[in-house]
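hey m, so remember when u said the tokens were messed up on ur end? i reran from scratch. heres the input so u can diff it against urs
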Amino acid sequence: MGGGTDTSEDGAEPLALAVLEFRWDGIALAIAGFLFGIAAVVAERPLRAVLILVFFAAPFGLMFYLVVIRKMVARAAAGAAPLSDVRIEDVAAMRRRILRTTGIQIAGGVVIALVATVEHIPGLAIGGGALLGIGGGMLAASQWFAGWQEEQSATLFRRPAYRWRRDPKTGRRGGGVMDPRDFFVLRSARTDQPR
């Protein structure tokens, strides 16, 4: 097993290391939030921008983690399907994929911030705070997964997918990037996890 050269049981696409994927997603979102914050300090009233940034980042990240992420990561890890063999997604490909999806989120944030700025709402600071908070939540999820892997002596993988539609079997709405159907576990295995 390693670096994208092995084939998975079903011959499907390579799987991402969950810890690594969530860590890089959190870093990308936090950097975007920081850049929004810098733009807010330059374009808006600096002190107000900093206060709004902090006011939105801390509660939004904490709320996002406590209300959404904590439950979803536990459900994803508990529902992870067992694997005996896996093909790991190339780290560079994973980073490019995360930058693409995060870029789409950032573009949406820019549009919202521009509309808010036109309406004289401190949109850059609000957007930056939200992105920082979500990035922090994703980093916390990465840490949760790392702790779970250590406790379980296992490695958690995720199929690079985003589910939003309802599952016809359960009727539940998809879990986005944390849908249990996209998580897999390789037990009693140690994988060298690149950073």
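this time it looks ok to me. DSSP finds four helices and four strands in the chain. if urs says something different then somethings off w ur setup not the seq
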